[in-house]
Design goal:
31% of the residues lie in helices and 31% in strands. The protein has 139 residues and is α+β, with helices and mostly antiparallel strands.
Length: 139
């Protein structure tokens, strides 16, 4: 890569609210980016429904924080239903027993003894100056 052809820009927000850095070619076109999470190019019906409902209520596309928060509360809701009572330990135990969860940010699996989700990553490409879905990388 000829670095002199690319201009790096920090905290540029024109692509998504959570874009950290992206490079531009000599014509000013975006060529690369790093993002927290991206759901605006959905691959699943669950994600499409979430985006449509969010846009209807708030008038804008949800960012990664909105999507991850939605998934967090979805997991909590599932644990509350499984626990069957409003008890901290019962909810914690029910949360720890969720083997798999299909969220708006992707499918998550939880291995016993770990609270960290194993989930697929979304690979995006920049096409005509916009992020577009390219593929999902599954662990």
């Amino acid at each position: 890569m000829n670095k002199s052809k690319y201009k790096l820009c920090a905290n540029c927000n024109e692509m998504t609210p959570r874009t950290k850095t992206f490079a531009r070619d000599e014509n000013g076109n975006p060529t690369a980016a790093t993002v927290q999470a991206h759901i605006a190019s959905p691959a699943s019906d669950t994600t499409k429904k979430f985006i449509a409902n969010y846009k209807a209520k708030y008038g804008t596309t949800p960012d990664d924080v909105a999507a991850l928060t939605y998934d967090s509360f979805g997991l909590l809701w599932q644990a509350l239903k499984t626990a069957g009572k409003n008890d901290r330990q019962a909810v914690r135990d029910a949360l720890a027993r969720i083997p798999q969860y299909e969220g708006v940010t992707g499918n998550m699996q939880f291995k016993e003894g770990s609270g960290d989700p194993v989930k697929s990553a979304v690979i995006l490409k920049i096409k005509d100056g916009k992020f577009t879905w390219f593929a999902n990388a599954k662990p």
